[in-house]
Amino acid sequence: MTADERIEAIQAVVDRVTSWQDGATEGTVAEELRRGADQVGVEMSDDEIRRLADVIEDRHATVSAADVLGRTG
Question: Which superkingdom, per the lineage (predicted)?
């Protein structure tokens, strides 16, 4: 999987989690990010999960995985 494909897969997971996260706890958001990553076959570090979960919780809007994780993830 290329870096671009990895970011695209992570973005799909982020978009899905962001769409229903309003009111969810950070632990729930992080768990759903992990579950989604497993489903699309991409590995994410605990740090990547935490960073994405933090931004999803804070923004309550569209989140760019590439911006949060850097272009190469």
Answer: Bacteria
